[in-house]
Amino acid sequence: MTDIRNIVVLTGAGISAESGIATFRGPGGLWEGHRVEDVCTPEALVRDPALVHRFYDLRRAALAAVEPNAAHRALARLDAHWPGELLIVTQNVDDLHERAGARRLLHMHGELRSALCARCGARTAWAGDLPPATVCDACGAPALRPDIVFFGEMPYAMERIEAALEACDLFVSIGTSGAVYPAAGFVRTARWRGAQTIELNLDPSDGSVFFHESRMGAASVLVPEWVVSVLGDA
Ligand code: OAD
């Protein structure tokens, strides 16, 4: 890996599966209990705010019972020791990357431990339940909602992510099905700009053909192996 300096890592629900957080589209996935259109759209939030808030209250509460796994810890080690540029972009709304110690991290789909004011856009660290019509400290409006990027909304930090993808030498996708855009298109941006591209996933993702290399297996095994291959003994 001598010519690699600039790395972008994309993670999805598969990296947290072995911590006990169900993936979205696998067996037992969240969508089996709740239809995505019931909980994860701006329209659902208007139609049934109690359902949407309760759904995310349960997800937030569930964080207390889970811990980062070996894959999160390996990426945190990469973050701590990689001397070049690194950006870990996660689609996950859990906080397992940061609890493992990752710092060069972006939550493109929002965060369970954050509340967003639908009126003024302020984002506030949040623990515990978030009932509908909770008042925003910044503007006073009863408008706090879960800070989750719903279907049809723009993910966070897209300009920064696009710039990182265009500048990277290596793009690694971990534990994501490649079913949701724009994240599913990142591999093509990076590859088109000349990056090496690797997928680490349990099953081939929808965009598997776009990667130079696909390694199939559990994230808790593949990610530590890959980090050792990048860092050596550092
Ligand atoms: P998915 O549930 O669509 O895909 C999870 C992927 O992880 C699948 O390809 C599995 O094969 C793989 N996987 C499962 N267990 C694994 C393991 N132990 N090791 C490695 N891989 C494993 O989840 P995402 O691709 O993250 O958006 O879904 C993308 C977005 O869809 C989510 O961020 C969410 C949802 O709408 C929001 O919440 C806004």
Q: Quick gist of this model?
A:
The protein is of the alpha/beta class and 234 residues long. The chain has 10 helices and 9 strands. The chain has 2 domains: 1-21 and 68-109 and 155-234, 3-Layer(aba) Sandwich (Rossmann fold); 24-65 and 113-148, SIR2/SIRT2 'Small Domain' (2-Layer Sandwich).
Characterise this structure.
- The protein has 234 residues and is α/β, with parallel strands linked by helices.
- The protein has two domains: 1-21 and 68-109 and 155-234, Rossmann fold, CATH 3.40.50.1220; 24-65 and 113-148, SIR2/SIRT2 'Small Domain' (2-Layer Sandwich).
- The chain contains ten helices and nine strands.
- It has a six-stranded parallel β-sheet with strand order 3-2-1-7-8-9, sandwiched between helices. The protein has a three-stranded antiparallel β-sheet with strand order 5-4-6, covered by helices on one side.
- β2 (85-90), α7 (96-100) and β3 form a beta-alpha-beta unit.
- α6 (70-81) runs parallel beside α10 (219-231) and α8 (158-167) runs parallel beside α9.
- The protein is globular and about 50 Å long.
- The two termini are 14 Å apart.
- 2'-O-acetyl adenosine-5-diphosphoribose binds next to α1.
- 2'-O-acetyl adenosine-5-diphosphoribose binds at residues 12-14, 17-18, 23-26, 29, 91, 93, 109, 148-149, 175-177, 179-180, 201-203, 205, 218-219.
